[in-house]
């Protein structure tokens, strides 16, 4: 019988951050204008290595979470300006909203879950191109958590209890059902008692007994451990979902075709920022504003990694797992969705 790992947050530990090559979200509004408010002062000068961009003023959709730290860092440090881009951001509340905004033209680029992108692509709702891989889950970065006296002691117990997620047919329940089945829990997706609520409400609902377990990413995972004694039942980023690609950046297929130099400029700035954020000090400084995480908790979080490559094979894992659990009806060849990173 598999026993739960009663992991709890220590008072301090080193932050683990990595830029990933071939081996390899937190809801809070930004205060004030934020970092990407169009103040970079970029003009239509030649973009580094790519000639003049077709569109210098771009709008990026985002959620205020750890995953998007590189785009804020890139703006603050002038990486977008160096590429001839003047960036503004628009906060989105869901993948569906972001994708609709791409189609309507109010967004040029958007961050989102790969699960949302694959679902839209498979259903024909949108024709998307992936231009960046945003964030990768590593060990203890996202997990199914419970609290003492919940009655949940082993992974097998999850088959008969309520599990909190932020949305159905999303990244949360995909990771949860994969972790459960790969750890020998004999339950079908439709037989799980999924309970949908806003991510910030999940730790409190867990502590109050409204749900018995919850899929929590950082920083909610560590917050729940520190405030309520929550502990890990299953890590959602190991086994079949180890080093899991959580989210990325997309544009519409039309935008990619019409603005190849603009896309390449965005990609260069993103990769440059992702490389810089290997430095945990740089990441710690930017996260309180980017993701609304209190400064005293930043240093004890378990971070994932910011990819510096864009590999179809890695992201194909998302589409394959979605097919396995019937999240999508038609298979997707992710290679067809990828806009390769520029060589220079």
TrEMBL record:
Claim: Cytoplasm is one of the keywords in the record: no
Keywords: Signal
Source domain of life: Bacteria
Main location per the UniProt record: periplasm
PROSITE patterns hit by this protein: PROKAR_LIPOPROTEIN (PS51257)
Statement: the UniProt record of this protein carries the keyword Zinc-finger: no
Localization per Swiss-Prot or TrEMBL: Periplasm
PANTHER family: ALIPHATIC SULFONATES-BINDING PROTEIN-RELATED, TAURINE-BINDING PERIPLASMIC PROTEIN
Family of this protein: Belongs to the bacterial solute-binding protein SsuA/TauA family.
Protein name: NitT/TauT family transport system substrate-binding protein
Organism of provenance: Actinoalloteichus caeruleus DSM 43889
